[in-house]
Amino acid sequence: MMIGFAHNLLRNAFSLQKGHNFSSLVWDDELAELAQRWADQCPESGHNDECRSLNKFRTVVYQNVGKKSYPGSLPGQKAAEDIPKLMSDIATEWYQQPHNPLKPDTERFETINVVGCGLTKTSRCSLRGHPLPACVDYFTIHLVCNYASKEDESKVEYDTVSF
């Protein structure tokens, strides 16, 4: 998936510590479904979904929410061509935000290895006497990405108990 590839590049480019090797992110359909449900609500940037945990992950599910507005509209084929760039723009803004991370917050990214994203496009109309299809002034892309750590089942170690 293109978004996973973009996240991998950005995460390595904006690495908080030199020499840090992050696991590559792999797409997860279940995380994407949760993200899409939240994106469909058109959330404001920074307003995370509180109901996003899944039992199959060993950690909490982390989330980034972003939106970007553009003048005009994205008709048909142009939308299909431009949306990957818009997704990349929003993801880049997340990684470039000024921050002063606490140690636990930065350490969690070492173990994150799955991602799932959802995207919704909304339009705002200014009627001005025009029929609805002709009144679009700008559109907004809402992008939500969920991140988690998934165990490599071939490496899971079990404690033994003696009876």
TrEMBL record:
Location relative to the cell: Secreted
Major subcellular location class: secreted
InterPro entries, alphabetized: CAP_dom, CAP_sf
Pfam families: CAP
CDD domains: CAP_euk
Keyword hit for Lipid biosynthesis: no
Gene3D superfamilies cross-referenced by the UniProt entry: CAP
GO cellular component: extracellular region
SCP domain sequence ranges: 6-147
Lineage top rank: taxon: Eukaryota
Keywords per UniProt: Secreted
UniProt-recorded name of the protein: SCP domain-containing protein
